Amino acid sequence: DFTDSAYTSHEHRENILLLCDGVGLQVNQLLRVGLTSQGSGLTLNEQKDGSSIEVEQAIEGTLKSVYELRTQLQETAFAQASDMMRSSKEVSEIVEVMRNAALTTDSERLEEVSQHFNEHLERTQEVCKLLRHISTTDTFHVQCKYAEINLKIYGPQLAVAARTLCSTPTSKAAKENLDVFIDMWKSLTNDIEALTHKIAEVLGSRAADSKFYMSLPRPGKHGTTQKRLVKPTELNHKEQVEADEKSGKEMQPVITTEVEPEAEKWTEDNFQDENNDIVRRAKNMSNMAFNMYQFTHGDGPLKTTQDLFTQAEYFAEEANRLYKVVRQFSYMVPTSSEKKGLLEKVDEVPTRVQQLQFTVKNPTVGKAATFTKVDSVIEETKNLMNVISNVVTTCFECASKYKLDFRGLSPRGRNSPFGRSDSEEVGGGSGSGDSKGGGGTSSDGSM
Question: According to the UniProt record, where is the region Disordered (predicted)?
């Protein structure tokens, strides 16, 4: 992938090929020395000092050549990533030109800029592939793989949406559809840039250790914020779980970073969670979303794709309930710009819920289709959680400004089925009996 990439410089390609040949020579030398030692019938400790030194030198030479090759591969990947990020402003202008060309029905101009956009899209996919090859943790590896898949799925849709708008310039739906794909493109590229910086930071910390510990791997836990050795050690199950949990908490961008702080503010203002349906449901959705996020890293209570889809259904149902409660709260807000903003934001919830439900119910056949569906469900969940976060923040602002009391807002009593804790309702999100209590039709009936 490194040498075949059209975006790899001639110098880097030559260096990689030379270093690959060097690794091959060192490996052959190591095999020759190993076979010689094995033919003697003696263990390494029983052999003379000369033979032992020769084996150690062969091992050291192999490690050194592999280290040099890996360093070159990392340099090549980061060089392409840097070129991609330097051209990000140019690509943003291309996307804007595509949008304007579609609005003005300039099909020739649209096709011209679409070709430039597709070239950058291909380059960005190459960067994701190279970053995946140099990733030092499973977390980074999965993130790079998902980023590449997202680009393959959603990148071409931007050009398709632009052509659709060009053919129907008066269609409001076509315009909104293009805007959605433009926002998604910006989000994907921002995620890739952030991922590049994270990988570079981890590799930079490892490079400092490699000068002294190249052949002396030390035991310990390896997380995304800790320095890694050139020769990694195998983690036991407990260590791996702890590392994954740590990385998962650091990487959740939307799941809890905004909803939880707002909920804490409400608690500080003496709004009791048990009497505040908005806070309780927002936290419940946050926990569900985090379980789904952990699934993409092989962790958490969700074990199968069916568990994930079931959790997504409950997530959508909970969003519908939160929507109804927020609409009830909006009646308490006096007519103002804040109320108008709240209504505009909360009215996005049904659309996002419908998109998530449609994605979950979409039938699939085969592993590839299922994998694509999982990716789409995660993306729709993230989009819905973004909307919920904005709604919760706006509710808090309205409550603080107009001194609104939430304690009587919940349409449920203490003995209602929803009176359970969030952990009880989310804990069965994998399709167990506990989840059904949180997603039954009887809950909607009381609304």
Answer: 410-447
Asked whether the beta carbons of 76 and 12 are under 8 A apart, the reply is yes
Do 197 and 315 have their domain in common?
Answer: no
What's the CA gap between 443 and 317, in Å, rounded? 10
- Cα(91)–Cα(89) distance, integer angstroms: 5
Residue 391 has pLDDT above 80, yes or no: yes
Q: Which of these, 306, 255, 310, lies nearest to 284 by C-alpha position? A: 255
Sign (positive or negative) of CA dihedral 345, 94, 382, 290: negative
Distances (CA, A) of 52 to 42, 47, 75, 162: 11, 7, 35, 68
> Residues, the chain, total?
447
Q: Are residues 360 and 426 in the same domain?
A: yes
User: Which band of pLDDT confidence, cut at 50, 70 and 90, is reported for residue 192?
Assistant: confident
pLDDT at position 3 is 60
Residue 108 and residue 82 share a domain:
no
Asked if 34 and 93 sit in the same domain, the reply is no
The mean pLDDT value for 24-33 works out to: 79
Cα three-residue angle 90-92-93, rounded to 5 degrees: 65
Q: What is the CA radius of gyration of the chain?
A: 27
Distance from C-alpha of 258 to C-alpha of 254, rounded to nearest angstrom: 7
SS3 162: helix
Q: Which domain holds residue 245?
A: 87-251
> pTM (2 decimals)?
0.41
Reply yes or no on whether the pLDDT at 49 is more than 80: no
